[in-house]
Structures are given as C-alpha cells and as structure tokens.
Specification:
Elements (H helix, E strand, L loop, with lengths): L5 H15 L5 E5 L2 H5 L2 H15 L4 E5 L11 E4 L5 E4 L4 H12 L8 E5 L43 H6 L4 H9 L2 H11 L11 H10 L6 E6 L8 H8 L1 H15 L3 E6 L4 H16 L15 E6 L9 H8 L23 E5 H13 L1 H5 L9 E8 L5 E6 L4 H8 L9 E6 L6 E3 L9 H6 L8 E6 L4 H15 L5 H18 L5 H17 L3 H5 L1 H10 L1 H10 L7
Parallel strand pairs: 1-2, 6-7, 6-9, 7-8, 10-14
Antiparallel strand pairs: 1-3, 3-4, 4-5, 10-11, 12-13, 12-14
Length: 564
C-alpha cells in the first residue's frame, strides 16, 4: 500500500498494532548478523517445519539484534494476554519445547531470560511469571535509556506497519506538511545534537551551512563505514530499525534541499548490504522513498554503496573520494564538504547514530531532546562495551553517565573475579584510563580534559593481567596497516613508532627509546593530515605516562609482565 496521508498512516499503524499484539501466539527470531552466525536461520527453519507439520496456529517473524550478541540466538514470544517473553541462547531443543508449551497452553521456562513489560497487559504482574524478572530490572537492560535501540530486537525490522505502530514516520509527516526546511534545522540546532561519529560537530549548524551553500544539486551521505575495533552499534540500528535511519536521512535531505542520499556501508557488512537493499525496496513500495514521499510532492532517492575496505575511508573526505571512484585519501580543507563535497556539490556527512536521532527530535521537539544529557552534550550515546566484563554489549545511556557505573553496575564488572587495570574509551584512538581514574563522566568535554575522547563510543575493559605494551603493539600494527600513506607524519612517523614498539616489546630497547617514541607521537599528532595519524599517538603517549611500569618491565627484563 502507498502511504499518502495521515489516514493511510493510521491504517498502517492499526495493522502494525495487530501484528505486534496478535490474537494468536507469535514467535520472532533475531535474524541479524550475530544471530545468523549462531544458527538463527536454522532455528527459524525448524519453527517453520514444526508449524507445517503440526498445524499449530502461530505467526513467525524476524527481529534484529538487541545489542547483546552473547545472548544470541534470541526468541521473542508473544502469547495473548501475557507479557512478551524473551528467550536467549536458543537451541533446536528449546524451540521444540516452546512449541510444545504453546500447544499445551503453558509457558516454557527453560531458556526464558526475562519478560518485556511484565505489567503492561493486565496492569499488574502475571502470577505465572512472578519469578521471572522484567527486562527493566536486570542487567544488561537495567538503567539504560534506549531511545535509538528501543525497537531493536522488538519489532520486525522489515515491517513498515510495525515501525509506524511505534510512531514511525510521524516526524517525517510532520516535517513535510507542517514545517519549512528552516524550521527542521532550527529544531535540530535547538536540540544540541552533535555528530556521533567522533568529531562531535553540531549537526544543526552543519545542515544550516549546507542549506545556505549554492548548488544545483546537494547530497546527504550516511557514513556507515563502521570500522572501529569493537564497534557494531550502527550495524545494530541498520539491521534492527532501518526505517528510522531512512526517515532521518530523508529529513536531512528535506532540511538542506537535497534529493539524493547515499549510505556508504562498511565493505565487510555483507548481510547488512542485502538487508538494507531489501528495506529500501519495501520503503519505495510504501511511498516512503522515491517520488512524492507521503504524498507531499517531495522526492528523495536513496541507494547504498559498499565501502572500499579501508579504515581511513571512514573519514568524510576520503569517503567522498572513494564514492567518486578514486583511492580513498583525505582531502585538504578548506573547502569543506558543505561547500564542495561529493562531485564538488554541497554535501553533508553524518553517521548512522546521528541521523537516527533526528526523527525523535522532530517528533518530540528540540527542547525535549536538549533536556537529556549534560549542558554541552545533549541526548544519549550508544556505548559498545567489550573486553573483560560480565555483560558485554551495547548500552545506550544519557551523555554524562559515569564511566564507573557503566563498567561495574551496568556491565557487571570483570567476569573472572579479577580487578580492572584500565579502560580504553573511544577505541582505537582513546587513551587507557587507569582504574583509579574511572570516576569520570562520559561526555566529550570531560574526557577531553583527561586527554581522551568518547569517539564512536567503544569502551574496552582490561583486567589486571593485561600488559599495556602488548595492547599498544597491536594497536600500532592496526594503524600502520590502515594508514593511506598520503602524509609523511603518519606514513613515516607511525611506522617508526611501530618499529620502536616492537623493539620495546621484545626487550631490545632502552629507556632513551621511550623519549624518541614520545617525540614521534607528538609530531604525528600535531602534523598529520587526518584523524588517523593525528589520533594514533594518543594511546601511546598516555600509555608511556600512566603505565610506565609495563614499558620498564619489557625494557629492563626483556619479558612481558604477563609471563613473568
């Protein structure tokens, strides 16, 4: 069906509500990349076979990842009159037991992790589930503020009607019919939204400058070249709630006067590429992309381009070179992309997380969004917490949340009883924060004062047995491999840093080499062309300052502290 007006939106919403809360049992399997890697497709096939064999009246759907891949494959079961049931680490045996339970009209407890909305059906807790906690009360979901991740793992990501039932496309309809482009930009400025890709530039100001730039054609680029080690928040949004991202991209196009959007997708995201292309075709059929969107007369085309497989292509100017068919090298600025970007046309580049915030801002107002977070850092941030913690995964929290709370309360602290030695925030360019300095708020300003950054939001927890020299050695190898080689400070400086780190690691260096390493780091930091060369020295310089004992152990004993 084509959605051309509010009446059509209401019809879609009604269909979506009936799908989300059916009169017959409904089972949804998480079919995102991580779920598929652990056999979710086999579970879905088993459910299909059981349904056909037994004739049981159930509906089967898919969902995306909730952000906690270690709990996959997940299954969400909706039973009429009951709260939603979330099963984790599913197996064929557990699927068969769920089917048997549905046939006997009983709730299967094996594998049942929690309920979702335990008191939302009858207005009070269900006695049959009195011992099963609600997701809001247990890790890893407890204490989160899931604005962007709220629908991930809940709705069918390829169902427009289910997205509309969760207020989807209400923001786009509001903008196209009730707001001028300048008013959309004003709301984004008022919200205080800043780019979530790492630079943290004010989004509304970027859009305003792009709108005022002259050009017969303008572009909106969604940077989905998610290359930071440990990062997968953008993939989770794209596979779990793609229409929210599409809505944000179209809103950006309407705001700056663009009719063409491009999602520049990480080359390694093979499943995501196929999935997003399917979602785009569905959006076109509903009149939500292409010509005459929502019957408003506004046209906007969206397509996907796979990245060049290079980490540096995540930098916006290198990304545009890649889109133009050139080698992805950073450009000298000015001119800036908002003036001369893709094909020398005015261009805005925002990442997935940034653009997905925009529908919420337009729907609820800039002031609403500005009330979340800190005075200078508004909204929420999705953190990818990895390393030695009990509950690794994605945590969406208001900016300004304490790092210590995230590590020890939300993520559960170290899983093996060992102590935390350091936490790296903003991987791979973030510094390693010692355990005694973890009482810091997660916002760009507070971290900048420490010499660190929040970056894309990756947080790596390292336990007491970790050797910082070992970690830095691997980090430098990564930076050298991913350098484009365009500028001398990065090409030569970072390479020489890696050589020195190898000597230190193998016990063939002297303490004087630490001074040379420090000088090389400062030079690369201050004179490199892009953020890769400029950011690579940060963890090295910090490591020499705060974890000198690890360096001394390698230099003086020739052995890594892990093996001594």
């Amino acid at each position: 069906m084509k959605i051309k007006n509010m009446k059509d939106l209401d019809k879609a919403k009604d269909i979506g509500m009936k799908s989300l809360f059916p009169k017959r049992p409904k089972i949804s399997i998480s079919m995102s990349t991580c779920g598929l890697a652990l056999g979710a497709d086999r579970l879905f096939q088993k459910l299909t076979e059981e349904k056909e064999k037994t004739g049981i009246k159930i509906s089967l759907h898919q969902t995306g990842c909730s952000g906690f891949c270690n709990l996959e494959p997940m299954a969400m079961v909706r039973l009429p009159g009951k709260p939603t049931l979330l099963y984790t680490q599913m197996t064929v045996e557990k699927v068969e037991q769920i089917i048997q339970g549905i046939r006997k009209k009983k709730i299967t407890k094996k594998g049942l992790f929690c309920t979702i909305g335990s008191d939302s059906v009858s207005g009070k807790p269900d006695p049959e589930l009195s011992e099963i906690p609600d997701y809001k009360d247990i890790p890893p979901f407890k204490d989160q503020y899931r604005l962007l991740l709220g629908n991930c793992g809940i709705i069918d990501p390829l169902s427009v009607s289910e997205y509309v039932a969760m207020e989807g496309y209400s923001a786009l309809y509001k903008a196209l019919y009730q707001m001028r482009p300048e008013e959309v930009i004003k709301a984004v400025v008022e919200s205080g939204l800043r780019g979530r890709g790492g630079a943290w530039f004010p989004t509304g100001f970027k859009w305003d400058m792009a709108r005022k730039s002259s050009g017969d054609e303008k572009f909106v680029i969604c940077n989905a070249d998610e290359g930071d080690p440990g990062a997968y928040k953008d993939r989770t949004i794209m596979e779990g709630n793609p229409f929210k991202l599409f809505e944000g991209i179209v809103l950006a196009g309407y705001a700056i006067g663009s009719h063409h959007g491009i999602i520049y997708l990480r080359e390694e995201y093979h499943h995501t590429f196929e999935f997003l292309n399917t979602a785009i075709e569905i959006a076109k059929r509903y009149g939500l992309l292409g010509k005459n969107i929502l019957g408003s007369g506004f046209n906007f085309a969206l397509n996907i381009v796979r990245g060049g497989g290079s980490y540096v292509c995540g930098e916006e100017t290198a990304l545009m070179d890649s889109l133009e068919g050139e080698v992805g090298d950073p450009r000298l600025r000015p001119p800036f992309p908002i003036e001369k970007g893709l094909w020398e046309r005015p261009t805005i580049v925002n990442n997935v997380e940034t653009l997905s915030n925009v529908p919420l801002i337009i729907q609820n107002g800039g002031k609403w969004y500005a009330n979340i977070g800190t005075e200078k850092a508004k909204g929420t941030k999705i953190l990818s917490v990895v390393g030695n913690v009990k509950h690794p995964g994605l945590y969406e929290v208001p900016l300004g949340t304490n790092l210590k709370q995230v590590i020890f309360e939300m993520a559960g602290g170290p899983f093996n009883g060992k102590s935390i030695k350091a936490v790296q925030v903003g991987s791979p360019f973030g510094i390693f924060i010692p355990a005694d300095k973890l009482d810091v708020t997660l916002d760009p300003e507070a971290l900048r004062e420490m010499g660190s950054m929040i970056g894309s939001g990756v947080i790596v927890a390292l336990d007491q047995d970790t050797c910082i020299v070992d970690i830095l050695h691997h980090l430098l190898t990564f930076f050298v491999e991913e350098s484009c080689g365009k500028c001398v400070p990065c090409r030569e400086g970072v390479s020489r840093m890696e050589e020195l780190m190898i000597e230190i690691y193998n016990g063939r260096a002297t303490m004087k080499d630490l001074d040379i390493l420090n000088e090389l780091g400062e030079t690369a930091r201050d004179f490199s062309l892009c953020a890769l060369g400029g950011g690579a020295p940060a963890p090295i310089l910090n490591g020499i300052k705060d974890f000198k004992k690890d360096f001394e152990a390698h230099i003086q004993t020739g052995k890594c502290p892990r093996f001594s």
